[in-house]
Design brief:
Blueprint lengths: L1 H22 L6 E6 L7 H12 L4 E6 L2 H9 L5 E5 L9 E16 L19 E5 L4 H13 L4 E6 L2 H9 L5 E4 L10 E5 L7 E9 L6 H18 L1
Parallel strand pairs: 1-2, 1-3, 5-6
Antiparallel strand pairs: 3-9, 4-7, 4-8, 4-9
Length: about 240
């Protein structure tokens, strides 16, 4: 009788430790990965496939959002790591980051636009055109503002949307133009063209993974970071 109670007590302690570790994000059976919408075209699938090979038992939840939303979730431990644009908002003393790749900003036009066949575009030529943008909080919204400031005009914005795929759909339908990163080129590739900006307007986004320093020894996170380093190496070469 005493032995049974002792065994149950030990099992209860082991279970409590397991639940506590999972609540803190250490080697939990579920990994919550935050990402920008635009990274789901290529980057996220490749990283998740690699992570599943390393830790086949791991269940992965994908949470999509803007730079600002994802950083908030990371700081509140609602996600374990985030794939974002490494702009100034990501300089947080509680976080570490690993760069993955850099991406140019392009003018997105409908396939039948007069600008679609140009080798590059002077933004002053589109100052009277209608634009569609992402809402504030998205890195591409902020980068677009910087490009327009450099071009010396404020765009006529017909609509703001909450995800990049809706924005692409609006561009493909001829609702307006947009400034978008090159990584989404494969989406609507027959209906939307990405035209390089003239050199004086060119801007790059630097994409990377951000995580809390407090979790940097978690085995699941370490597996993701190893995969991210391999991805960055392949992209660099």
């Amino acid at each position: 009788m005493l032995e049974e109670r002792a065994q149950k007590l030990i099992q209860d302690v082991i279970e409590s430790v397991r639940l506590t570790r999972e609540a803190a994000g250490f080697s939990a059976e579920r990994f919550k990965l935050g990402s920008l919408y635009s990274l789901t075209v290529k980057t996220v699938p490749q990283l998740i496939m690699g992570l599943k090979i390393r830790r086949s038992e791991l269940n992965i939840d994908l949470i999509l959002g803007s730079n600002i939303d994802l950083l908030y979730k990371l700081k509140n431990m609602e996600v374990d790591a985030i794939l974002v644009s490494l702009d100034d908002s990501m300089n947080d003393p509680d976080c570490e980051q690993i760069p993955l790749f850099s991406d140019d900003i392009f003018l997105a036009t409908p396939a039948d636009s007069p600008f679609a066949q140009q080798a590059e575009v002077d933004l002053s030529d589109v100052r009277n055109e209608t634009f569609i943008t992402l809402t504030q909080g998205f890195a591409t919204h902020q980068d677009g503002n910087r490009v327009f400031q450099q071009a010396g005009f404020e765009p006529k914005v017909a609509m703001q949307v909450n995800d990049i795929f809706t924005l692409l759909s609006m561009v493909s339908s001829g609702v307006g133009y947009a400034l978008l990163p090159g990584r989404i080129a494969a989406v609507y590739e027959n209906r939307v063209k990405l035209i390089p900006l003239q050199a004086r307007y060119r801007l790059q986004q630097h994409i990377g993974v951000v995580f809390l320093k407090a979790k940097e020894r978690d085995p699941n996170l370490l597996a993701l970071l190893a995969e991210c380093r391999m991805y960055a190496h392949r992209h660099a070469s």
